[in-house]
Specification:
This protein has 281 residues and is of the alpha/beta class. The chain has ten helices and nine strands. A six-stranded parallel sheet has the order 1-4-3-2-5-6, with helices on both faces. The structure holds adenosine-5'-triphosphate (ATP), pantoate and beta-alanine. Pantoate (PAF) binds next to strand 2 and helix 6.
Amino acid sequence: MQTVSDIQALREQISQWRQQGLKIGFVPTMGNLHAGHISLIAEAKKRADKVVASIFVNPMQFGVNEDIDSYPRTLADDQQKLMAEGTDLLFTPTPDIIYPKGLDKQTFVEVPQVSEGYCGESRPGHFRGVATIVCKLFNLVQPDLACFGLKDYQQVQVIQTMVEDLSMPVEIVPVETIREASGLALSSRNGYLTEQELEIAPVLNQNIRWLAEQIQTSTDFIGLAKRAADAINAQGLKTDYIHICHAKTLQPASEDDHELVILAAAHCGKARLIDNMQVFK
Ligand SMILES: Nc1ncnc2c1ncn2[C@@H]1O[C@H](COP(=O)(O)OP(=O)(O)OP(=O)(O)O)[C@@H](O)[C@H]1O
Ligand SMILES: CC(C)(CO)[C@@H](O)C(=O)[O-]
Ligand code: BAL
């Protein structure tokens, strides 16, 4: 596996592969790789001839009081894992390479509606940062397809909408969430949890599953979501939000909707956990 940090080396390799008519799959990440990331690489490998991964802790998607400085950076370990899974190329740019003029003068991509609310409301500017970096990475890597984890459900909708609205020639492949046996979704930020917090963190997923069962037979979405939030908070987490939404528009679900998603975020110690579950009625 080749690792490149500069844009010219990346473009040279990509253009060689494109001239050979090879199909390119892409997996963008922020590093500190776990089995969730590796499942994205495996999915890309099944669908493409060459797999490109990127590791970039994107300053544009972090809020002022967020964890950009402490975000785990484990490049050597990550390279081992990517190589073992058969990744062909790893792109590891620095912020200077990606944003040479600085963030203030950078053109950005804003996706309306699906990026508003939920994580978009709690993390102002977050999805602008995500859409902008993913757009830029797509322009650099020119993939035929790109894999994204459904753990970040709202992010998948934001990227899918961006690709449709801007006619980007990239197929977005959503990949199922990989979980601990406890139900806790794997996440780099789980590394912030103490042993005790790791014991209570699965309560988020347990209550999402409870809610998924309840809404099969009830349309009291607001009342049920409140009961789930109370149960989560009673165990020592602090819910940021828990909502039942239309699976595509992410608008609050109405009684006639059949494709739903439960979206939730909760603070657990230093970590802000997110999780979700799609429900078909
Ligand atoms: N448990 C998981 N299962 C499947 N995909 C995942 C999982 N966790 C993250 N991903 C996906 O991996 C890609 C890169 O995510 P990222 O590097 O932010 O990892 P992360 O573990 O989600 O980190 P964070 O703790 O910052 O949310 C995204 O598409 C994300 O949805
Ligand atoms: C898609 C992404 C790599 C963009 O920085 C990031 O938001 C993530 O890791 O999910
Ligand atoms: N997995 C989403 C990246 C972020 O939380 O910034």
